[in-house]
Amino acid sequence: MFMTVVLCCTTVFIISAFSGCKEDQIIENLPPDTHISIEKIELTGENRLNSSVYLSWFGTDKDGHVVSYEYSIDNVNWFFTESRDSLFKFPIDPGQDTTDIPFYIRSTDNDGHVDPSPAFLSIPLRNSAPSVSIIEESFPSDTAFSVVTFRWRFSDPDGDNTVTKALIKANEGTWTEIDRSKFMLSIRPQDTKQSGVVDGDVFYNTEISNPGVTIDGLNNEGSNTFYLKVIDFAGSESSVDTSENIYLKKQTSDLLLISGQPPEVNVEYQKLVGDNYNGGIDAIDFALDNGQYQPKFWNPTFSLLTSLYDKLVFNCDQSLFSNPITGQSGLLLEFASPVLQNYTNTGGKSFVITSFPAGFVPSELRGAIPIDSLSTTSGQAVVSNDSNLVGANSDWPNIQPKNLILGLDPFLPSIDGEAIYTAQISTFGAWEGPNIVGAIRKQNGNTNQVFFSVELYRFDKDPVALNKIFDKVLNAEFNW
Question: Is the dihedral of CA 233, 237, 239, 245 positive or negative?
Answer without folding.
Answer: positive
